[in-house]
């Protein structure tokens, strides 16, 4: 990082550092490495359309789903309120570390489900992997195989960028592990949580 900063500053030697120049330097240091959502195409399934979308462009629609998901699955957090760090999520998306998938009603475009995955590189194998961050379908749209098809759409997108390992965690309260097992995920760990008093 220091080397990149030195190069970015050297290219501007003798210039006055204005706000615009500072923005240019930051762009040099942190180029946009986000995935183009269009590269994943879309899939229609029984009145729903699945696609990858930019989280940064759909936050007003996405936030109510985050609230509903948190209320349903995060009761173990003992009253710690939801406080999404959207700026960090947008930074991760820009760095190529986040993909946001959506399920929308085909007829109205209403957002009724989402799956967000983080993309990382294993420090142990140096291969790409994904970690599911959130997976939620509005209760009125559950049933059938819509949720399974959304998940499979996200998996195919991951495979298309070279993912070798997909990770998913399931809260005990919602039994999403059944869907994971149906999709051939294998349980490999148990996660424990302890809260400070």
What is the residue-mean pLDDT, rounded to a whole number? 89
Number of distinct helices: 6
CATH architecture assignment name of the largest domain: 3-Layer(aba) Sandwich
Number of domains: 2
The sequence of SSEs as H and E is HHEEHHEEEHEH
Class by helix and strand content?
A: alpha+beta
**Terminal residue distance:** 38 Å
Query: In percent, how much strand structure appears in the residues?
Result: 15-25%
Assign the CATH class of the largest domain: Alpha Beta
Instruction: Determine Rg (CA atoms, Å).
Output: 19 Å
* Spatial arrangement of strands, main beta sheet: 1-2-3-4-5-6
CATH topology-level fold name of the largest domain: Aminopeptidase
Shape: globular
What percent of the residues sit in helical stretches (DSSP H or I)? 25-40%
Poorly predicted regions are: none
Largest sheet: 6 strands, mixed
- Let me know the CATH homologous superfamily of the largest domain: Gcn5-related N-acetyltransferase (GNAT)
Folded structure, characterized:
This protein has 197 residues and is an alpha+beta fold. It has two domains: 1-31; 37-182, Aminopeptidase, CATH 3.40.630. It has helices at 2-10, 19-29, 55-73, 86-94, 146-160, 177-182; strands spanning 42-45, 48-53, 98-105, 111-121, 128-137, 165-167. The chain has a six-stranded mixed β-sheet with strand order 1-2-3-4-5-6, sandwiched between helices. Helix 5 links the parallel strand 5 and strand 6 (165-167). The model has no long low-confidence stretch (mean pLDDT 89).
């Amino acid at each position: 990082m220091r080397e990149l900063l030195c190069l970015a500053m050297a290219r501007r030697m003798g210039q006055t550092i204005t706000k615009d120049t500072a923005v240019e330097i930051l762009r040099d240091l942190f180029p946009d490495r986000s995935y183009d959502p269009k590269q994943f195409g879309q899939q229609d399934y029984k009145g729903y359309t699945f696609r990858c979308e930019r989280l940064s462009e759909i936050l007003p629609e996405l936030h109510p789903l985050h609230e509903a998901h948190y209320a349903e699955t995060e009761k173990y957090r003992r009253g710690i309120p939801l406080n999404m760090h959207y700026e960090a999520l947008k930074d991760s998306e820009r760095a190529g570390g986040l993909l946001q998938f959506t399920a929308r009603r085909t007829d109205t475009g209403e957002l009724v489900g989402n799956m967000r995955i983080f993309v990382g590189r294993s420090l142990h194998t140096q291969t790409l992997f994904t970690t599911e961050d959130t997976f939620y379908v509005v209760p009125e749209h559950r049933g059938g195989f819509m949720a399974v098809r959304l998940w499979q759409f996200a998996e195919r997108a991951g495979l298309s960028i070279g993912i070798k390992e997909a990770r998913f965690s399931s809260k005990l309260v919602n039994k999403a592990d059944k869907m994971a097992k149906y999709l051939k995920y294998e349980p490999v760990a148990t996660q424990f949580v302890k809260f400070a008093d």
